[in-house]
Structures are given as structure tokens and as C-alpha cells.
Amino acid sequence: MSGTDSTVQRAGVGSVQFPAFGTTAVVSVAQPAMLGAARAVVQELVDQFDQACSRFRKDSELSALNRSRGSVCPAGPLLLDALGAALRAAQLTDGDVDPTVGQALIALGYDRDFEALPERVAPAPVAFAAVPGWRAVELDRGAGTIRLKPGVTLDLGATAKALAADRAAAAAAAAVGCGVLVGFGGDLGLGGAAPAQGWRVYVTDDHRAGAQAPGQWIMLHGGGLATSSTVVRRWRAGEDTHHHLLDPSTGLPARGVWRTASVAAASCVDANTASTAAIVRGERAPAWLTSLRLPSRLVSSEGTALHLAGWPEDGDALPCAAAVPHPVSAAEPSAGAPR
Fold it and tell me: pTM of the prediction?
């Protein structure tokens, strides 16, 4: 699952962290007394998504689908929704975010939960695998079925984790009657009314370094935030180092100009779609994100931050580059609609 984490801090709120989806889950509530109840709701959603969408559980619905060898498979509502979100992301980004990268990730050595990967993966007979493309997936919501063309292996990590953040935040807020922030790695979803001054979030390359790492504090009031980065979830395969953000056109880790992309949007799913695509698109990303009016922070491989489309300028610990102006016409898509 793609992305990094963000540190959340706000006086007068309650917060808890626990393992989920191979990363760290964060649950914060505007009323501290509601923290236990909110955490329970989020944990239930985590379990449901894991059972439906995990590529690493042999008993998950997704694993059964990946073993189907071209057969039509019945699917539960959650898997249908998660795959629908992944296919939408692929369509809106012209395939730059694609759920059919599973076999390419396996060929590079990412064949189990990231925490279980050895420090160095032995060289595989196949160094890379082609990405079939999202059109090799047939989803029939009316019939409740999915069919993969033979040889297709799905990985729903990026969009499924973001969808889980959106749904967990909404469900927890409805259950406890106050504002809730839910984060899974770099994917943050907000539900209910935010605290008066918003949620204070620290955005950086890797949450494990905390607020000591160069980054920026920002305030969130609604929607979602996603951070995708090439500096985390890295592993060695033979003499090569790989990361999990693949360019579907090559089946290999993206070699763009950005090491980290953070995007705010109407939902975490939209933010994740845009942040992942930005890493893949490289030099084309700034104009694209600006045209969509998506507030974004891109960090170059040299460590320079670029703020776009209303992302706050103040307080960034990294040196900042000036954005190249990009005219936005009324005909271009609005925020929350990546293309």
C-alpha cells in the first residue's frame, strides 16, 4: 500500500496509534472521551478491508480472485467498491495509477507483506513483468462478479487503503458524534466537524522520523490528504534497490523527479490517486495538479519543495522552489477529479 504517514497534533483532541495494513493507523477525535469507541469502529473497518482486499492473505477475497485464472468470480460489496475505486483511478489518470501491477511487484520481490520482506531479496529469474493494464479487468456490479484476464494479478494497496481511510473516518464520526481523523500511512480521511482551528498535521517523507524530520505543519478542515513517497517501502533485490510506486508503462519503479508528493482533495481516494500519479508523471505533474486545483506539495529528489494550487507557503523546513504559473480555464476539471 502506497504512501507515508503524517504526524497529527492538536490540543484538546484524543489520539491513538496501532498497526494496520502493514503500516501505522492513527485515530484522532475532537472529543477525547469518544476515542475508544472511534477506535473500535476503525478496527472493524480495517478487518473488513483486510479480508476483502489484502494481496498477502491467502484467505482474502482478492487472493482468491488472483488465483481465478480467467474465471468469473463472485465478489462481496467491499471488494467491488475497492476495485471500482481502483479502476476509476486508472481511468482518470490514463493508466498512470493501475491496479494490475501485482505481478510486476511480485517479480521485483514484493511478494509478501512489507514487514515480512527480508532485508535483501534473492535475484529472481524474471527481473520484471509487464503490466496488463486496467482494461484487462471486467467488473459487473449488477451481477456482483469480477473477471480477470488470464495472467492478471491485482494489487489494490494504494486506493483500497485510501478508501478505507475515507470510510473509517465517516463511520467513526457517525458513531461517536464528533470530528474524527483516520490515517493509514500517508492516507488521511476526515469525518464529521473538525476542531475549530482544524486538524494540525505534519507532512514529511517518512512518518517514522516524526516531526524531527524536515517537513511542514498544515491545517486540515475536511476532505482527505495523501502522501506518496519513493523513500519508504524500499527493498533490495540482488544488487538493485526498488520502491513500491511502479510506472505501469514499464512495470518498474517510477524514476521521476519527485521523491514525495502530498495532495489534498475532496476525498482521500482522490488525493491518493493524484499523489501516486504525480510521482509517475514527474515533470508533467506540476501543471497537471495546478490545472485540477489540487493543493499539492512536491519534494524533488534534491530535497526542494514546490507548493501548488493554494498549498500553504509558510513553515516549510525545506527550501522552496517557485512554481511555474499555469493558466487554469473554466473548462478544466475541479479539485477532486484527477485526470
Answer: 0.87
